[in-house]
Design a protein that fits this description.
This protein is of the alpha/beta class. Helix content is 29%, strand content 25%. The longest helix has 17 residues, at 130-146. The model has no long low-confidence stretch (mean pLDDT 97).
């Protein structure tokens, strides 16, 4: 791969720092690296590949440099303002916020699922919601074979999905201190409340999973419902995914399909208490699938337990993989 100039927006945040870690691990071909963050972080020094970089304040002039790809993870309002500026300067933006995901002219990409969609970019590519990413990797493979009629999502999401404040609430709650971020204590608790509630009774997180799944799978006929829950886990989201297929299937064939799908690791030996765990998935890039079994309440239904690191595959790794696709398809 040719070397390219890369900017990271939100370089000092949890996902931004993981961008750097993943870029280094995957030997992403960087010529020049620019680290951008808020005025508060400007001047801080970050080491990448043995070299120190000074954090620069993000301004409207930040993209006047020769930048090929910008990885954004600084929140929706920052992306709303600065992604179009970067785009106008000829930079391809890969955005980790929810700002652009449902725009018709912005591809929503999971590289194991719809890699070709990066070719449709108009300067901005969206990284899906963390909980959606890990679900659609196995779902795409099964949808292609059996056709998905309906999905029921129930998620058990780590506090790191709320950033450092979520982690702090859990750590402080365990010590007996009051929560500052969540509306109720997260320590020793489960909150069926992620993001704000909408008029339809669902939360934004639940509607993200519903809408993004349909867009990524390119099938708006699939019926989907979701309940998303915050649990006292540091890293890795866990999901119960119930699927109803259009066609008949054999459970062994489901195992075979998932075993041959890139990015999936089957962890399924219930007799020996072997199944995907949040602790085991933390720090890894794969999607772990287990507890695969027929749903006997349906003619063509299965249940799966799907676990992945929400900061890596759910955010940083998926974003870097999208950048790798841009190089693979000579789009930079």
């Amino acid at each position: 791969m040719k070397k390219v100039n890369v900017a990271i927006v939100g370089a000092t945040g949890m996902v931004g720092r993981t961008f750097l870690k993943v870029l280094q691990e995957r030997n992403f071909p960087i010529e020049n690296l620019y680290l951008l963050a808020s005025k508060k972080s400007a001047g801080d020094i970050v080491n990448f590949n043995g070299k120190d970089y000074i954090i620069e304040e993000l301004t409207e002039d930040s993209f006047d440099k020769d930048i090929d790809i910008a990885l954004f993870s600084a929140g929706g309002e920052i992306s709303k303002k600065f992604a179009p500026i970067a785009k106008e300067k000829g930079v391809i933006v890969v955005d980790n916020s929810s700002m652009w995901r449902m725009h018709d002219d912005v591809p929503l990409v999971v590289p194991e699922v719809n890699p070709e969609d990066v070719k449709k970019h108009n300067g901005i590519i969206a990284n899906p919601n963390c909980s959606t990413i890990q679900a659609v990797v196995p779902l795409k493979a099964l949808h292609s074979k059996f056709g998905i009629k309906r999905i029921v999502y129930s998620t058990y999401q780590a506090v790191s999905g709320s950033g450092v404040k979520g982690i702090s609430d859990l750590k402080e709650g365990i010590k007996g201190n009051e929560n500052r971020l969540y509306p109720h204590p997260i320590a020793y608790n489960a909150l069926p409340h992620i993001d704000t509630f909408l008029d339809n009774g669902y939360t934004k997180e639940e509607m993200k999973m519903i809408d993004e799944t349909k867009k990524i799978l390119n099938d708006h006929t699939i019926k989907i419902t979701a309940t998303t829950v915050r649990v006292p886990v540091m890293y890795s989201h866990s999901e119960s995914v119930n699927v109803e297929f259009e066609k008949e299937f054999d459970v062994k064939e489901v195992f075979d399909i998932l075993n041959s799908t890139d990015g999936i690791v089957i962890v399924d030996d219930p007799k020996n208490n072997v199944y995907p765990l949040a602790l085991d998935a933390a720090g890894k890039d794969e999607v772990f699938v287990g507890r695969i079994r027929r749903d006997f309440s349906l003619d063509n239904g299965i249940n799966m337990w799907v676990v992945a690191d929400n900061i890596r595959k759910g955010a940083a790794t998926n974003t870097v993989q999208i950048a790798e696709l841009l190089l693979k398809y000579n789009l930079v």
